[in-house]
Amino acid sequence: MLDPRIDWVFALGVDDAGAYKLECWTPAAQALVLYPEDPFVAALLGDPQQALPEASLRDVLPMGDATAVAQWLLANAHR
């Protein structure tokens, strides 16, 4: 269990951890996406100009824009 004082953790391969996460998606990855079925995917990282494999109401953050991602994380620290 994580310390309750921790706002966010960056980790790879914790798909089923039951913790809020950002899902990275690019068409080149050709991987299955989690967000349609995983309520713990809080937002998506990718190219906001490209169509997602499945529609989503989640925010799509530009993967190459660390400032935008950091701002989103700060604005959503309550999760």
Task: Compute the CA-based radius of gyration.
Answer: 13 Å
Number of helices: 1
Helix amount: 10-25%
Summing up helix and strand content along with how strands pair, one would put the structural category as alpha/beta
Percent in strands: 15-25%
Q: Look at the structure and give the mean pLDDT.
A: 85
Q: What is the element string, with H for helices and E for strands?
A: EEEH
Taking the alpha carbons of the first and last residues, their distance comes to: 16 Å
Strand order of the largest sheet: 1-2-3
- Overall body shape: globular
Structure, explained:
The protein contains 1 helix and 3 strands, in the order βββα. By secondary structure, it is α/β, with parallel strands linked by helices. Strands 1-2-3 form a 3-stranded parallel β-sheet, with helices on one face. The longest helix has 10 residues, at 66-75. The mean pLDDT is 85.
A few lines on this structure:
This protein is an alpha/beta fold and 79 residues long. Helices cover 13% and strands 18% of the residues.
Structural key phrases:
79 residues, alpha/beta, 3-stranded parallel beta sheet, 13% helix, globular
Please write out the topology.
Elements: E1 21-24, E2 41-46, E3 59-62, H1 66-75
Parallel strand pairs: 1-2, 2-3
